[in-house]
């Protein structure tokens, strides 16, 4: 299976403490893996991902966003969610605007499938493993409901082209290219 590619805002997050420890079959993202996806390119060739990345300068709306989160929601299939995500509260409009402007042209530039969903600015905190049994999935969702994000704040001050990390036991993703916004 080939690596997936995506363009995302690397997240600088303060005051995030996921306690208690997650239950079995939940993989918590490390701080270097926290991001907010602008566009998921999928298993395209590296040259196609770079074609999309080369278009980043075409969008005037990209800017730094500081914000907070409203809470945690399970995402994915309604009966079998795969992601546990922090939903953006403060900063949602600015991030939604940037995603709405750039996602479709970037996906087209990479030859990736269109994404018809409305923008949903969120930061995945953890993934429930595919092998999780129903009881483990319920435990993961109970754990997610207990996550307190009241004091958590973020800054999104760049965009990056990501792919899978070479050693996915150490970290999940690696940044291939990065574009910092002018302050």
Question: Which secondary structure elements does this structure contain, and how are they paired or packed?
Answer:
Layout: E1 5-10, E2 12-14, E3 26-28, E4 35-42, H1 46-53, E5 65-77, E6 80-88, H2 92-110, E7 122-128, H3 134-145, E8 153-156, E9 158-164, E10 173-180
Antiparallel strand pairs: 1-4, 1-9, 2-8, 3-7, 5-6, 5-8, 6-7, 9-10
Helix pairs in contact: 1-2
Core attributes:
183 residues, alpha+beta, Cyclic Phosphodiesterase, Chain: A, four-stranded antiparallel beta sheet
Helix content: 10-25%
Distance between the termini: 39 Å
The helix/strand class is: alpha+beta
Q: How many individual domains?
A: 1
Q: Spans of 5+ residues with little confidence (pLDDT < 50)?
A: none
Amount of beta strand: 35-45%
Count of runs of 4 or more consecutive helical residues:
3
Radius of gyration: 16 Å
Biggest sheet layout:
6 strands, antiparallel
Question: Which superfamily, in CATH terms, is the homologous superfamily?
Answer: Cyclic phosphodiesterase
What is the CATH topology? Answer: Cyclic Phosphodiesterase, Chain: A
CATH architecture label: Alpha-Beta Complex
Order of helices and strands: EEEEHEEHEHEEE
Q: Overall 3D geometry?
A: globular
Q: At the first level of CATH, what is the class?
A: Alpha Beta
Mean pLDDT value = 94
Q: How are the strands of the biggest sheet laid out side by side?
A: 2-8-5-6-7-3
